[in-house]
């Protein structure tokens, strides 16, 4: 009696492959690609080993072509969106902070920089990091203690406390 084999599709979103599986009494199987244990929802094909392998190859090839088409459509969509963003950047005026009559806008004092026309080579994250570093350095300069001198009464005195090393 020849062994019956069936073709199943993995229900995992990341895998979604077609695979062969030996027909068993239990309706459970494990995907050989992603390792997900699952129940049999739909049996696509049943037959002997050679027929099922050929069917799996055909179904996976079709699935791969559909996925490749979807990826190409996504790439085309991204290219179109980038072109659209370039068009929007061209349409945005350079003088966003000023009004038509030449006066400074009331909102411009609340805006740090022009978002659309970023001419600096550093990213906003690098700018904020550099600003934080400069503020820390300034606060350290303000809080620095003058070095102890020989005229200082504690200069030559030996301390009994270990905490003096950390103060």
From TrEMBL:
Gene Ontology annotations for the cellular component aspect, listed alphabetically: nucleus
InterPro entries: MRNIP, MRNIP_N
Domain MRN complex-interacting protein N-terminal: 7-110
Gene Ontology terms for molecular function: chromatin binding
One of the Pfam families matching this protein, by short name: MRNIP
GO terms (BP aspect): mitotic G2 DNA damage checkpoint signaling
Compositionally biased residues, Polar residues: 121-142, 157-167
Region (Disordered), start-end ranges: 121-167
PANTHER family for the chain: MRN COMPLEX-INTERACTING PROTEIN
UniProt name for this protein: MRN complex-interacting protein
Chain's gene name: LOC115622828
